């Protein structure tokens, strides 16, 4: 669903590398060429991308949990099927992203182990709970909406496998966003209780969604190298502003109030939000969000309880290969 | 306020459609419980996909039942506003997921039947049922392949997976007899060529099971004592809990559009 702007570039490793190759590499990036898995690349580029793509993959997989929380309680059969299909899409995104990360030389198992050990991050938005059905609409509308803002530029990312994965992911996210908004429209045209449910969900998700774009540009130290390598094309604040400008009229159409009494519209039409509470963001990031423990516990449980199944599949595949070799030798 | 259970005019054809719709919905619901919690991402995808097929089949069958009934019921009222005694699914499909072996054995028993059943139903004299059967048969064939491959992997995998798969077979076997039973109302539909006699499929079903379990080095139980009751609304204790979750929104906020 989304990868956070947290990636640090390990510039130190670059000193060890062939300066000529590095210059050639940068020239290819500057010429908007795509870097492919077998091409030479600086170790820090590989490391930055592995981290970013795997964080993105982990976010898709952990992101299945808050929405999955409503699959068994969706209010109609149509909504149940749509939500299940949506969560299944997120799983598919996780799979292509792990595959894209694998082209950089780390296995899916290593990447997943790092996440389960708490060493790799996933988007902190998924550490908030889904309390009512309106949260499912709001996640589609706002969380997927924010994800699209971040991900559309990634379709032009310098690393080919990531850029290509993002094209498909963005198509599906765009569908999810419309589906979420349609849930909100239905709620806002419904009873007073349904409208209140929609407003309550917006109140709870608005600020965490703005935090999805990462720290403000003034304090963000990670963007320079990513920008130079054309992994990142817009700053956190630019993307956040685009999102706010697109979202305010959508909230107005719904008849919902953005929970920011200080929000104003500039003469140039931009909606300016009040200051974000970054202490909350830091708390959630360091593991103190409302659901961090539950999310990690659920992923670890699935992994541990599934171990015997994965072992059985591996053991059967090995036996079968052995039998085929034995047969061929006869 | 519309909190009460709906009344359904249970003619043989309506009950017939509800039984198949309930099978598909309850099994689809059970499979959807795995989403986000499966042993590997490929199985999160596969089990969700099968759940989606089944929920799709349920929706078509409920819509057909509502149309045959001709009152103001629809797919959602039939799914969300009948209580446990009005549900007509097989006991097999409401059994809890248990471990992955339990889920896959349940799926294998059901899909091996559904695949034959829907293929036979493609010749139903009722055009809607024949069309639903044609779509369901394609889906069931894939579900059966997926489940069979897993039964073989688990049975012939590790000692632990073999033990778990065998335990699941032994545990669920008594729920398979109900798939082949019919009552007088359904017997009349069979005579009219609208439904097919499931008993006529039992030999081929057993052949599929024997072939797959043999390759999986697993054994089918010898005992032939079978649990009954789901088709007439006498369920296990598990279904009530499933329905209380499935129906919670419609029961809490009656009569709203979602």
From TrEMBL, chain A:
Family matches, as Gene3D superfamilies: 1.20.1260.10
As one GO molecular function, the record gives: phenylacetyl-CoA 1,2-epoxidase activity
This protein's superkingdom?
Bacteria
Gene Ontology BP annotations: phenylacetate catabolic process
Give an example GO cellular component term for this record: cytosol
Q: Which NCBIfam families match?
A: PA_CoA_Oxy1
Protein name (database record): Ring-1,2-phenylacetyl-CoA epoxidase subunit PaaA
> What is the species listed in this Swiss-Prot or TrEMBL entry?
Bradyrhizobium yuanmingense
From TrEMBL, chain B:
Q: Biological process GO terms, please?
A: phenylacetate catabolic process
Gene Ontology cellular-component terms for this entry are: cytosol
Q: Which domain of life is it from?
A: Bacteria
* Protein name per UniProt: Ring-1,2-phenylacetyl-CoA epoxidase subunit PaaC
Q: Which organism is it from?
A: Bradyrhizobium yuanmingense
